[in-house]
Design a protein that fits this description.
Layout lengths: L1 E2 L8 E4 L2 E12 L5 E9 L5 E7 L3 E4 L3 E12 L6 E7 L6 E5 H4 L11 E7 L2 E6 L3 E9 L12 E6 L4 E5 L7 E5 L4 E7 L1
Antiparallel strand pairs: 1-6, 2-3, 2-6, 3-4, 4-5, 7-8, 7-10, 8-9, 10-11, 12-13, 12-15, 13-14, 15-16
Length: about 190
């Protein structure tokens, strides 16, 4: 069990038998009242986002989530729903496949590439999602050349990464470079190699 102020980012909790990931938390005091923790949660089953406020007297059940290694194979559009499905396999057996919906993957889908090994999130013996590290390294596949003289005030340009994500980077980044990206914000962190 967690106290109200222990419900922090990247923790997993259970509300009504459903596991949630804590995306944001902010503990504060309203005037003369007792402190509260305002949180933003994402359901690991449906992908829906909800706001929840925990008071100082509340205790919250921590989700019993285990992790395993899975490899990303490919993504394709579901014919019935029209939403993207992401296919993975356990261990070294490509035949042991399973899929997750875009709702279960969330915003981090922009930073997943084929063949990437990820941590799977397992709740009640079922894979309910994947977890990426805080930073991922991806190759730049499209980058416009820097414009000479365009260096005022930390100038940036947009590039396309091998996963399909488009991010802002400094002007010196070129096609073929490998960059590190913060998954939570989608921001450029550093150039790893060129």
């Amino acid at each position: 069990m967690l106290n109200y102020n222990e419900v922090r980012e990247r923790k997993y909790i259970v509300i009504g038998d459903e596991p949630y990931e804590v995306l944001e938390s902010h503990v504060f005091r309203k005037q003369q009242r007792k402190p509260v923790n305002q949180t933003k949660l994402r359901s690991l089953i449906t992908g829906s986002i909800r706001a929840e406020t925990f008071h100082s007297a509340d205790t919250i059940k921590e989700a019993d989530i285990s992790k395993g290694k899975v490899t990303f194979l490919y993504k394709k559009q579901d014919r019935q729903s029209g939403k993207m499905e992401y296919f993975f396999f356990h261990g070294k057996n490509r035949g042991d496949r399973f899929s997750l919906s875009i709702d279960q993957i969330g915003d981090q889908e922009k930073f997943i590439k084929e063949g990437q090994v990820l941590d799977s999130l397992i709740f009640n013996d079922e894979v309910i999602g994947v977890s990426l590290p805080l930073k991922v390294e991806l190759k730049v596949v499209e980058a416009s050349p820097a414009v000479k003289g365009n260096t005022a005030n930390n100038a940036n340009k947009q590039v396309t990464l091998e996963s399909g994500a488009i991010i802002n980077v400094p002007l010196f980044i070129k096609e073929g470079d490998v960059v590190s990206v913060k998954v939570s914000t989608g921001e450029y962190s550093e150039r790893v190699s060129n």
